[in-house]
Design brief:
CATH architecture of the largest domain: 2-Layer Sandwich
Helix content: 10-25%
Oligomer: single chain
Strand order of the largest sheet: 3-2-1-4-5-6
Number of helices: 9
Strand content: 35-45%
CATH topology of the largest domain: PmbA/TldD fold
Radius of gyration: 24 Å
Structural class: alpha+beta
Largest sheet: 6 strands, antiparallel
Distance between the termini: 52 Å
CATH superfamily of the largest domain: PmbA/TldD superfamily
Number of strands: 18
Shape: globular
Order of helices and strands: HEEEHHEEEHEHHEEEHEEHEEEHEEE
């Protein structure tokens, strides 16, 4: 892919389109306006059983404009960036605004909160693999899995993807900024078989820079090992026991917390954490903090989608909820101030800890020894979470553990509890932090959940 997204002339061209939209909105009488434009391109190649299945090139561009006439707003978008199309889109947004009801909370972010510093966060690392190289990487990844164990009998394919994009955002407060970013990934899914039956598993890696990806062979071997170790899966009798969530699935538990403290859930009275600010919601050892300026991280950003400056902050310290996840609209609804989270959280990280006062477990095996006997969950199936009540029930697969060692794989089970109790019942978080997303956590040990099986 081209490295032209980092070129000043490319940024200037897009900035000119944004400024044109804002100028046109003002000319048509809008009291406030904001516009964002994005262009991106990517390559995705999938190989299955050594043969190329798909080669996809993508190119996208688009402009979104929102105008405000007092507290009435209207939005429109276009993929045509010509001056005439931009004018038509602004006009359409203004027309829509005339027919919408006034909303006292509508409007741009407070100008005092907009970003004024734009550090280089190392988010842009273009890669030009070419189709042959991309096919070679995907093929090597799948081969690494198929050759790792004779019990790997089939493959759902390996995919290499590479994506680059540039976004420009501006508003009538005079804010105008741009950010180029890349994202590269490699994944494979394989099927293992023996006399007990067949099992599937996968592995992947993703990074801003292609040079930081794990090798194709290593990704393939991990996928194979994960599939093979699931062979011979058993069912469990229903019981209550300690449970470890492996790091790759542990982030889902924290995503339910984010949903419960998001402004839209709170002002709609649709969260089990209503009126919890300043109160204990997690175990005392839990420290959850945002790190929006980590170099090269997938959730890093100098500003949110409203132009509000991002800042490191604690959401939870010593188990106590210190903040919500707010954009400007939800903040006004709650009579609070935006937290710079329009568009989501930025590298929300759970610091490793052990409620017993000992040193945090360094990795998953150490955490299993800390648990002793219980269930290790490595995969969730389906979605059964109610953030209004906190009810939690999800299909799962994993391993039964005794004396800190894995005994056998388990399948067709359900893990259930209440999120309120699960958060307060966190016993430990290991240091094996999974950094492949916006929410970063190690494997988690919970004191007791209901495991429903036979």
């Amino acid at each position: 892919m081209t490295d032209g997204f980092a070129d000043d002339s490319a940024r200037r061209r897009l900035a000119d389109v944004v400024e044109q939209a804002l100028t046109e909105a003002k000319r048509l009488g809008a009291s406030q306006s904001e516009a964002s434009i994005s262009v991106s391109q990517g390559l995705s190649v999938t190989v299955r059983l050594g043969e190329v299945e798909t080669v996809e090139h993508t190119r996208d561009k688009g402009l979104g404009i929102t105008v405000y006439f007092g507290q009435r707003s209207g939005s429109a978008s276009t993929t045509d960036l010509s001056p005439a199309a931009v004018r038509d889109s602004v006009r359409a947004a203004c027309t829509i605004a005339k027919y919408t009801a006034a909303d006292d909370c509508a409007g741009l972010a407070d100008p005092a909160l907009l970003a004024r510093e734009f550090p280089d966060l190392g988010l842009y690392h273009p890669w030009n693999p070419g189709i042959d190289q991309a096919i070679g990487q995907a093929t090597a990844c799948e081969a690494g899995a198929r050759e790792a164990d004779r019990r790997i009998v089939n493959s759902e394919g390996a995919t290499l993807s590479s994506h680059a994009g540039l976004e420009v955002y501006g508003n009538s407060h005079g804010f105008l900024a741009s950010q180029a970013a890349t994202r590269h990934g490699l994944s494979v899914s394989v099927i293992a078989q023996d006399k007990s039956g067949m099992q599937r598993d996968y592995w992947y890696d993703v990074s801003r820079a292609s040079g930081r990806l794990a090798t194709p062979a290593a990704i393939g071997r991990e996928a194979a090992q994960r599939a093979v170790r699931r062979l011979g899966g058993r069912k469990l009798g229903t019981r209550r026991c300690p449970v470890v969530f492996e790091a790759p699935v542990a982030s889902s538990l924290l995503s339910h917390f984010v949903s419960a403290v998001r402004g839209s859930s709170l002002y709609r009275q649709a969260s089990f954490l209503l009126d919890s600010l300043g109160k204990p919601v997690f175990a005392p050892g839990v420290h959850l903090h945002e790190q929006p300026h980590l170099p090269g991280a997938l959730g890093s950003a100098a500003y949110d989608s409203e132009g509000v400056a991002t800042r490191p902050r604690d959401l939870v310290r010593a188990g106590v909820l210190l903040g919500y996840v707010l954009d400007s609209y939800s903040a006004r609804k709650l009579k609070l101030q935006t937290t710079g989270n329009a568009g989501g959280v930025h590298n929300l990280t759970l610091q490793s800890f052990d409620a017993g006062g000992g040193s945090p477990a360094a990795d998953l095996p150490a955490l299993l020894r800390r648990m002793g006997t219980g269930l290790l969950v490595t995969e969730f199936i389906g979605f059964g979470v109610n953030t209004v009540t906190g009810d939690y029930s999800r299909g799962a697969a994993g391993f039964w553990v005794e004396n800190g060692a894995i005994q056998y794989p388990v399948e067709e089970i359900t893990v259930a509890g209440k999120l309120q109790d699960m958060f307060r019942g966190l016993v430990a978080a290991a240091a094996d932090v999974d950094t492949r997303g916006n929410i970063r956590t190690g494997s988690l040990l919970l004191d007791g959940l209901t495991v429903a099986g036979e």
